[in-house]
Amino acid sequence: MKAYMRTIWDDLVKNKVIIILLSLVWILLFEEFTLFISLTGLFMAIVVVLFTNRFMLKGDYQHTYMIGLLTLAEYGARLLTGIWLAGFEVIPYILSGKTDVQIISCETKLSDELLINILANSITLTPGTVTVEKKGNQLRVLALNPPAEDGDPRDVIPYKLENVLLRYENKLKKGYRP
Q: b/e per residue, 5-27, with b = 16+ CB within 10 A?
């Protein structure tokens, strides 16, 4: 029992930064800073870290799930800009009722599962597109006004976002660790 408790303590110490970040997200989601919310956030962060370490995670958080701050900032800025621009782009089609909806299969150039999932979720966040299936680097996207028949099916992928993730993936392949 003593060895098991020591393992749990070591996990908590090793993942203290993740626990703090998860606790801060908890507080931000509640939009209130009280002792009760802070303590429940800390408790939930500890439970999440211990649960994922025991049953789900194959590596450790910082090497598996952390993205560099510069990459994250650039990606976030491009994503918000893309969402904003796509919103204005689809409004006329929706108001006019002249829309064509189609499921398109496309392949991303990414190979890292986490980065592919981030891209797939970003596609879903962008107005006019929803990722409906992901198998490896193959994405099926429900697109409003898809590319023409002779067009590139990859046009439903926001290239600027994919390029940010590709640059980061190439850094990871060269041994970069955030």
A: eeeeeebbeebeebbeebbeebb
For strands 101-107 and 138-144, give the pairing.
antiparallel
What six digits make up the tokens of 55?
């049953």
Give how far Cα 25 sits from Cα of 18, 29, 60, 154, 163, Å: 10, 6, 20, 34, 27
Residue 72, Cα to own-chain centre: how many angstroms?
A: 10
SS3 content of the chain, % helix, strand, coil (to 5): 65, 10, 25
Q: What is the pLDDT of residues 63-122, one digit of tens each?
A: 566 677 778 888 889 999 989 998 898 888 888 888 888 888 889 999 988 889 999 999
For residues 26 and 163, give the distance between their C-alpha atoms in angstroms, rounded to a whole number. 31
The tokens of 19 are what? 């626990």
User: Rounded CA gap, 20 and 45, in Å?
Assistant: 8
Write out the H or E segment, with its range, that includes residue 42: helix 35-55
168, 68 Cβ separation under 8 angstroms: yes
